[in-house]
Amino acid sequence: MNKIAVISDIHGNIPALEAVLYDINELGIDEIICLGDLVGKGPDSSKVVDIIKQSCQSVIMGNWDDFITSPSEYKTIQWHQAQLSDKQNEYLRSLPFSTEFWMSGKFIRLFHASPRSAYERVQPWDSYDKRVSLFENSDQTENIEGTRRPDIVGYGDIHNAFIQHLEGKTLFNVGSVGNPLDLTQASYVILEGEYLSKQEETFSIQFRRVPYNIKLAIERAKEAMMPELEDYIQELTTAKYRGLKNN
């Protein structure tokens, strides 16, 4: 049996990433897939890019990874852009949109947000039709099996881990390593089965929650004099999205 760790949305949070990578290593998992959003929000985008590039066998482009490499009029975005080298920007621009593979007879597709865009947000409480649409093919997805739709879809983006079964298919979100908005612990998923096998075998999806040093993450942001610091502290300590702070 093979085990693949699927991580996402690190957002420049080194203490959280290091805690998750330690957990992955302790479990003896050899392959890691990252579903994007390496950068932004936290203070250490540059270090995260280097670590992910070295640690992960596959890395998908997230929305932050996309727009961070383009000019911006927003001061906060400019601050995060200044942390990255030209070489790191080139790496982010080169990231693919999705990845597909077979595991224990299941055709699996992973992307950052939806099969249509890295910017399309789909929550677990959205309409049934919207959630089912995540199994559609598009001109963005690899479509290694032609018109066949995936049996299992996994994604990131919403920082909210969940699993649902829809029309005999399985949809899951890996949550966020560095900016979780459901629990104040880093989140990732382990896929276990026979990698690249089209034959039906035992298969599982396991969710892992990893505590990390939130105080250290906040201290790193303070030392860097990172913009929107209070919003960042709120999200790390309460798992409450900054856009909801006045509700």
- Low-pLDDT ranges: none
Structural class: alpha/beta
The name of the CATH topology of one domain is Purple Acid Phosphatase, chain A, domain 2
Task: Report the strand count.
Answer: 10
- Shape category: globular
Q: What is the radius of gyration computed over CA atoms, rounded to a whole number of angstroms?
A: 17 Å
Q: What is the tally of helical segments?
A: 8
CATH architecture descriptor of one domain: 4-Layer Sandwich
CATH class of one domain: Alpha Beta
- The overall pLDDT average reads 97
Written as H for each helix and E for each strand, in order along the chain, the element string is EHEHEHHHEEHEEEEEHH
* Percentage of residues in strands: 15-25%
GO cellular component, one term: cytoplasm
Protein name: Metallophosphoesterase family protein
Organism: Halalkalibacter suaedae
GO molecular function: phosphatase activity
